[in-house]
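Form 7-S
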Amino acid sequence: MTSRRAVPIVVGVGDIKNRSRKVGDAIEPMKLMLQAIQEAIKDTGLSSSAAKEFQASIDSVGVVNTWSWNYSDLPGLISENLGVKPKYKGLSHHGGDSPAKFFDEAARRISFRESKVAIITGGEALASLGACAAAGKSPPWTGADESVRSVSVSDVATKKENIGTLHSIGLPIHVYPLYENGFRAHRGQSIPDNNRESAELYADFAKVAEGNPLAWNYGKPAATKDCIGTVSEKNRMICFPYPLLMNAFNNINLAGSCVLTSTEYAKEIGIPESKWVYPLGGAGSSDATEFWQRPNFHSSQAISKSLDEGLRVSGVTKDEIDIFDFYSCFPIVPKLACQHLGFPLTKQTKAITLLGGLTSFGGAGNNYSMHALTEMVRKIRKGEAQRGLVLANGGMVTYQYVVCLSSQPRTSPYPDRNPLPELLKDGPVPEVVEKAEGEAIIETYTVEFERDGTPLRGHIVGRLKSNGHRFLANHGDDMTLQQLSSTSKEPVGRSGWVVAGEDERNLFTFTQAGKL
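Output:
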């Protein structure tokens, strides 16, 4: 008699890296994804005939959205190329949480017998796209859909107009540093000590990537702590306190895929149990999309709640997890995760990255955590770990999703839902004013730098002393910009004055007489 609920398992994983930057070798994202799917099907260990039958049984196709190219119907194109007509086709939003979210949802569909074989995939070809642009050539890829909005993580002008864009802030390079600076000040840590901590963390990550053949930097010596932490011509400051080697590196050509099915069908078609890895559960949520509408800049409710609930619904504790992969576009994300779980921020006793981070492994657009999932499956299969946890992060410390995997099945059916709401609204948020005037203190800040290493613009999140209202501002004079750029005195908590400028931007200075 068939039980009401099936047991979901991962039975195949695949990764593809196109290291060539030659225009003639430019493979579009969809084809990289198809190659990764074929690798994942091959990874099941099935015979050629059984693999064809298995592929024909795919009835769920989840695709992580790609930055590299605008497709009109990417899940449909992939399904067509696979020769399947799935009951479920999904395309994610733009966010690095998507691989974990799609993984959890695919496992749930299999558990409810709504799906027999599910694939999730994603990929980027930003290095090839850049090579084509440098050569002045259009890539010979599937016709782009001009109606689909392109993604930019480097141009704030592409964002919708709000108080962020008015003050030229809203990109990942701006917002993650706001959290790092806020987190540092909240802990009472000095700026030099904070820099050494981040450099040590990322040097350890770089060593992991150095040994991973799938890493974009594989074959190159790992960047050292001194190299990462020292600002230089090759390691220029982007937005304080992060030099280039503490930022995600996105110009890569990578794709990955996971194939899931039930234990029942795996036995029927002949996939050996040595290939089986069990999803235990998942949870995810988000903080406010607009960063100025969040409770503080030294913690993330979404990270904390996703970790707690992801562990709870998976039926495990943090101590029972052997390996972790914390998303790491910037050092602050793994730091916030470690802080919440009570781990040291450097030199952890358990792995907190399996790949080496988005700087050294490569920031695979929205798809980085797909590669964390594939690597975790391999390590569990090899017996290097019994249980693992992946934290996938997206947006501007916005979207979070956690999934847990194991060598052993759950003792109860797979969780029937994500236990968290789509948006968390816990904690008081100060009133935000568009125009601010009066004495104020800095809640957090960052400084954006020119390519030649000179400070360009100060970004301040402040609070009015008169009523506690929050505001955004830019620096109001050169002295204030220089002091914000200094490593000798902590700006967070310092007092100053804010006025509304002629162009409607708020301007902050440390002296009341300061003018732009």
